[in-house]
Specification:
Major facilitator superfamily (MFS) profile domain-containing protein, elongated, single chain, 6 helices, 158 residues, 0% strand
Length: 158
């Protein structure tokens, strides 16, 4: 499903009438909701369906560089992509011990799925807030003032 998600999300990102940033935010929000729904999956079919949805939505990595470029600009892409990869690695490194701690504490994985879903939802909503058009007013170029000309008078004609 990840391969299908990468292909279809990449195709959707090419359409001019689809805002790729909002497409990425939608994948994050739906992914967070699907993660939170996993504890409610009581049958194999429901769990398989949620796993397929999560697999499809992790295909959003195919539009991740484009969204990063659109968010920070091409000049800051290398730095922003490095910082994002750092935080992704941090999550991948710290996630399993935190989930293990949650399991040791509660003897169930439910809180771990709620926690991970909450983190993905939080990231999606923060990106949504950052992507709103009202924040774009800071990036608009102000009109440059007309150059000031000075007239100097000669004090004496010697």
């Amino acid at each position: 499903m990840t391969a299908v998600g990468k292909l279809l999300l990449g195709i959707l990102a090419d359409f001019k009438w689809i805002n790729t940033l909002y497409l990425y935010v939608a994948t994050l929000i739906i992914m967070g909701l699907a993660l939170c729904a996993i504890p409610f999956a009581k049958s194999y079919v429901t769990l398989a369906l949620l796993s397929g949805i999560l697999g499809f939505l992790t295909g959003n990595w195919s539009i991740f560089p484009y969204v990063t470029t659109k968010t920070v600009g091409i000049e800051k892409l290398a730095h922003a992509y490095g910082i994002l990869m750092f935080f992704a690695g941090l999550g991948n490194s710290l996630g399993p011990p935190i989930v293990g701690w949650f399991y040791d504490w509660t003897q169930t994985y439910d809180i771990a799925f709620y926690f991970s879903g909450f983190c993905v939802l939080l990231g999606g909503f923060i990106l949504l807030l950052a992507a709103l058009p009202s924040w774009d007013t800071c990036n608009k170029q102000l009109p440059k003032p007309a150059p000031t000309t000075f007239l100097y008078k000669v004090a004496s004609n010697v």
